[in-house]
C-alpha cells in the first residue's frame, strides 16, 4: 500500500510549483 500522506504532500507541493514555473515562463516569453 502506498503511503497516502506522502502522495498528498507530493501533489500539494507539485501543483503550486508547476503553476509558478508556468506563470514565470509566460512572463519571460511575454517580455521578449
Largest sheet: none
Strand percentage: under 5%
The portion of residues assigned to helices is over 70%
User: What number of domains?
Assistant: 1
Q: Name the poorly predicted regions.
A: none
Total E-strand runs: 0
Structural class: mainly alpha
What attributes does this structure have?
single chain, rod-shaped, mainly alpha, 88% helix
Explain what you see.
This protein is 88% helix and 0% strand. The protein is mostly helical and 32 residues long. It has one domain (1-32). The longest helix is centred in the middle third of the chain and has 28 residues, at 4-31. The radius of gyration is 14 Å and the shape is rod-shaped. The model has no long low-confidence stretch (mean pLDDT 88).
Could you give the topology of this structure?
Elements: H1 4-31
Question: How would you summarize what this structure contains?
Answer:
The chain has 32 residues and is an all-alpha fold. The protein has one helix and no strands.
